[in-house]
Amino acid sequence: MSESFHVQEADGVATITLCNPKTSNALTLDFWRAFPAAIRTLDATGTARAAILAAEGKNFCAGMDLSVFTNPAMQDTDEPAARANFYHLARLMQAALTAIEQARFPVIAAIQGACVGAGLEMAAACDLRFCAADAYFKIAEIDIGMMADVGSLQRLPKLLPDAVVKQMAYTGMNLSAARAAAFGFANEVTADAEAALALARTAAAAIAARAPLAIAGSKDSLLFARDHSVADALERAAWVQAAIWNTTDIKDAIAARMVKGTALFQDLPGLPEV
Length: 274
Description:
Layout: E1 5-10, E2 13-18, H1 29-45, E3 50-55, H2 72-75, H3 80-102, E4 107-111, E5 114-116, H4 118-125, E6 128-132, E7 136-138, H5 152-155, H6 162-171, E8 175-176, H7 177-182, E9 188-190, H8 193-208, H9 212-227, H10 230-244, H11 247-258
Parallel strand pairs: 2-3, 3-4, 4-6, 5-7, 6-9
Antiparallel strand pairs: 1-2, 7-8
């Protein structure tokens, strides 16, 4: 169990809810330890076909909790060995959010209010983003004398215009939900947090109704294509398709469409243990 979030799973959809609204869901050390383990556990079972990342309260996430910066690895950096420890801590925190991308199922963010700092970096790692009208995004690290280092500067240039990301990174500019949607970063903007969560649930249910192997293959191919040439991505897609080709799923999907019914697909296989 985590003091930072709770997890519920039903009908193939896991909902991970940040649950510290009094601190605007600022991310404590507990989050950085527990979150990647929770994602990997969901992935390992094979029963989760989609996940929703939501938050209690008026703000999605205020970013890194200031208590994190009291970690000795961040404070005592005068010696080379200490700076090496800082590097490894940064890589661990990066990996915590990269776990979202590494999961075989898509992750959908339902965002309201502030989505700043590490909260934005978490949202940027998600596959889809549905926003309340009051949502806004901010690379807040620059306001406290540091650069963002767990994903904003790496993922946002793939999701937003270069000049917009630079303005956010250099000035701490707020990006409204409306502008984020206009740029394609937000899938849709709706009235409030409840409506944004409803859209996320609709999208998650639609994903969960599709063949999980095909969804996992699509996610893998899209992420690979983001970071590689078209030629390399096509080569990867051919291998992935060969690996996951499932005539049973295809026949069941076609048969269900012919009678305007719903196909029932098997869950993903559980991940092996070493």
